[in-house]
Amino acid sequence: MATVTQAKGWTRDEMAQRAARELRDGYCVNLGIGIPTLVANHVPPGMTVTLQSENGMLGIGPFPYEDEVDPDLINAGKQTISELPLTSYFDSAQSFAMIRGGHIDLAVLGGMEVSEKGDLANWMVPGKMIKGMGGAMDLVAGVKKIIVVMEHVSKNGDPKFIPQCTLPLTGKNVVDMIITDHAVFQRPDHDHPFKLIELAPGVTREQVREKTTAKYEE
Amino acid sequence: MQKIYPSAEAALEGLLFDGMTIAAGGFGLCGIPERLIDAVQASGVKDLTVASNNAGIDNQGLGKLLRTRQVKKMISSYVGENKEFERQFLAGELEVEFTPQGTLAERMRSGGAGIPGFYTKTGVGTQVAEGKEVKLFDGEEYILERGIHADLSIIKGWKADESGNLIFRKTARNFNLPAATCGKVCVAEVEEVVPVGSLDPDCIHLPSIYVKRLILGAPYDKKIEFRTVRQREAA
């Protein structure tokens, strides 16, 4: 390649901020580990959003003060958290009935690869240690809207929004929106292709095209 | 009928055998039946199949049974943060049936509810679906998952009355409730045993019918995997 274009794009926190713009008043939302967790810091003022933690809690509060830390009160990432006045607790079967039953409005997850057909791979790299899928397969199968937040390219510079996933899938035809550090892609339903709907500041359409092998509408 | 036993060892007497299946509660290190895990370890029972969301961490929780090589197979959704697990798994010494978290919870729940299997969308089109029956409902694909029947359930609760009615605390409920129902025998350890009549019957999480044996496990030194806090703003 003669030129490597350096697109500026969004930071991790700005990607979370962009994802937070998809929140609506009254939503019950499940946030994955990593960048998705940061979405909680950007809930617009005046909007009530209830966060679900798949280990059995609706209404996640902020991290506790030092003297409030409670080993019996953790999120799905096993971090200590606090409760809110509206919090409820339940068991894992109830928690996933909530997820599988379509009662959660939105899930924001990380991704290793997303295909142009909306397949997601985010749980396993063959040959490396397999940690397991946790609740990710249940979330993508049951939650009404799935947003994947990920870097536009891998550490090696390889596109992550691609024609077909090369890694084992978490779910087939499940992704509704992709937010990368470069751009936002969306599709109206699972029968339509993704469309580029937004560019991060300083990023051009050409740069996105250069770093994307998936087919998408512009 | 006396359900309260003097120790974890006593409560497990006659229930353990090589090659058995154990369902265990807990999420990470939160709400794990640690006294009972210690007693299983001390018994030396081996070739265990353990259904548990996680496999403990190095030398904590079920990690203890891994270290002593008593586990043949894990049925789990997430097994990170565990070096010994990784070593045994990569060496082919340990079998793992990766099961999506919600599917695992429902497999326990349905096993305990006399439902031999159920159809779910979770895992359709992935490795999880391999070898499983696929059925169409209203034009959508679902896969058949089987209920889990364990020989023994080990769980951790907060308070129980002497009859075995039990309540959990905060997110320590997690898999303890479904796990309790899917074993032929459920042995529970709790932080406090109270007289019958002192728990509000409207607020029981696990009715006594499921709890066959009970021990007081206190005092507990509960472990935290990731301690995250915020600072108070200066007054």
Can you tell me about this structure?
The complex is a heterodimer of chains A (218) and B (235). With 218 residues, chain A is α/β, with parallel strands linked by helices. Chain A contains five helices and twelve strands. Chain A has helices at residues 12-20, 35-38, 92-100, 136-142, 205-210; strands at residues 28-31, 50-53, 57-60, 83-89, 106-110, 113-115, 120-121, 145-149, 161-162, 177-179, 183-186, 195-199. Chain B is of the alpha/beta class and 235 residues long. Helix content of chain B is 20%, strand content 27%. Chain B is built from six helices and eleven strands. Chain B has helices at residues 8-12, 34-43, 63-67, 83-90, 101-112, 176-181, and strands at 21-24, 48-51, 71-76, 95-98, 117-120, 134-137, 140-146, 150-161, 166-167, 183-194, 213-216. In chain B, strands 1, 2, 3, 4, 8, 9, 10 and 11 form an eight-stranded mixed sheet that branches. Classes of the chains: A alpha/beta (218), B alpha/beta (235). The interface between A and B is large, with 53 and 58 residues.
Keywords:
heterodimer, A: 218 residues, alpha/beta, 3-stranded mixed beta sheet, 5 helices, 12 strands, B: 235 residues, 3-stranded antiparallel beta sheet, globular
What topology emerges from the helices and strands here?
The complex is a heterodimer of chains A (218) and B (235).
Chain A (H helix, E strand, L loop, with lengths): L11 H9 L7 E4 L3 H4 L11 E4 L3 E4 L22 E7 L2 H9 L5 E5 L2 E3 L4 E2 L14 H7 L2 E5 L11 E2 L14 E3 L3 E4 L8 E5 L5 H6 L8
Parallel strand pairs in A: 1-2, 1-5, 5-8, 6-9, 8-10
Antiparallel strand pairs in A: 2-3, 3-4, 6-7, 10-11, 11-12
Chain B lengths: L7 H5 L8 E4 L9 H10 L4 E4 L11 H5 L3 E6 L6 H8 L4 E4 L2 H12 L4 E4 L13 E4 L2 E7 L3 E12 L4 E2 L8 H6 L1 E12 L18 E4 L19
Parallel strand pairs in B: 1-2, 1-8, 2-3, 3-4, 8-10, 10-11
Antiparallel strand pairs in B: 5-7, 6-7, 8-9
